[in-house]
Amino acid sequence: MSVSQKASDREENGRRKRAAARLKAGVQHPELLLAAKAALAVGIAWSIAPYLPGVANDYPYYAPLGALVSMAPTLMGSVKNGLQTVAGLAIGVLLAGTVILLSEPNVFTISLVVGIGFLISGSRRITTAREFVPVTALFVLIVGGPNADSYSIGYLVQVCLGISVGLAVNLLILPPLRQDAAAAELSRFRTTLARHLREISEALTESWPPEHEVWATRGDMLSRTASEVRAAVMHADESRKGNPRALIHRRDLLAAYDDVAALETVSFHVRNLTDVLAGAVWGDPLPVEVPAELRPSLGAAIRSVARILDEWDSGTGVLAPPRDEAEAGLKSLRAELERQRHSGAETISAASAIDMDLRRILVALRPSVERDAEDIPTPAP
């Protein structure tokens, strides 16, 4: 099999894997699944609530509320929501109880308690159920009224019932595990960076100034993508905590965090060299010069770095050839810069800055690429 055929097969294999990941993510529909589980939990809580004994039996409508607030995209998120909701309810009840013990509920005391509740709910310790502190205090004073004690007990018990139902549903019915979603986001980031670099290399080989300029406007998009990918990996990490499915579907998220850090560094240097080339073409944000003699070498070096990202994303593990090609491309670029040095520092400064960005990209990628490579050459003694 020829080298070109092997490369074509690897590219096709990468496309199939990305398509399969997208199809799997689409079929699972995390938001749809969460909505269905929330609806089921609310229904179960409402069905069970009337069977609770004592004063709780008078307030069955609070059980569905507890089920609803306990639902979250991850199992640990559900636990956190539930615990913070109970804490918010308890604080609200205590605030209302203090008013009842010390004075009669009136416009002043109710307003004061709600204000204090808002201050407490602003604490960093309460993040997901902060509105329950002032709302519970208000409900106990106004709705509970003369029966504030029984109302408080019924309210707390029913909400706790609903939270328990919500946690059980989220645990027993496909507890969310977002590792595949994180892998898909990492793949999207690699693909985006590789495409961006290819477009820049094509711009360098076009008639000058280049006709295509979309690549020069993607700086903010690359920054947003980096933030989204890191958030996806963190979400995947949280989804594993306490999740029984994580024991079956194991994945090294430490490697994913390393990959995010590497790609964030790559993105930073890609934005740098994009700004330099934009300045060479349009004089903005900083007017610089890229001599015509250096553009072919720059384009080839940038294209070879893009190929590393493409091959890494393909998942074939055959990364040594593109890595060697990129290093050879940068060596050729450095030699061309040396030949042009007689033209003056002002002439080659922009190309030198791009060369440095490309070298730093290779340094950032090296640990992840070598980890995933099938054939890592033995270092020379």
UniProtKB/TrEMBL annotation:
InterPro entries: Memb_transporter_dom (IPR049453). The keyword Cell membrane applies. The keyword Nuclease does not apply. It is a multi-pass membrane protein. Residues 1-20 are annotated as: Disordered. Keywords: Cell membrane, Membrane, Transmembrane, Transmembrane helix. One of its GO terms (cellular component) is plasma membrane. It is found in: Cell membrane. Residues 45-169 form the Integral membrane bound transporter domain. The chain crosses the membrane at residues 32-53, 83-101, 107-123, 154-174. It comes from the Bacteria. Pfam families: FUSC_2 (PF13515). Belongs to the YccS/YhfK family. This is Fusaric acid resistance protein-like. It comes from Cryobacterium psychrotolerans.
